[in-house]
Amino acid sequence: MTTTSNRNLGLTRSLVRQTRRFFGWIAGAAIVFLIAFTATAATKATNEVIYSFAGGADGEYLDTDVAIDAAGNLYGTSVLGGTFGGGTVWQLSQVNGSWVHTVLYNFTGGADGGEPYKGVTLDAEGNLYGTAVTGGSGSCEGGCGVAYKLSKNGSTWTQTVLHAFTGADDGSGPGSRVTLDQHGNVYGMTPTGGAFGLGTIYTLRPKANNTWKLQVLHAFTGGVDGSSGSAGKMVFHQGALYGAATTGGAYGHGTIFRLKAQNRGPWTFQSIYSFRGDLDGSFPYGGLTIDLSDNIFGTTYYGGTDGVGTVFQLSFARGGWVNLVLYSFKSSTDGNSPISNVVFDTVGNIYGTTSEGGLGSGIIFQLSPVPGGSWSETLAHVFAGSPDGAFPYSGMTPGADNTFYGATVHGGANGEGSIYKFTP
Question: What pTM does this model have?
Answer without folding.
Answer: 0.90
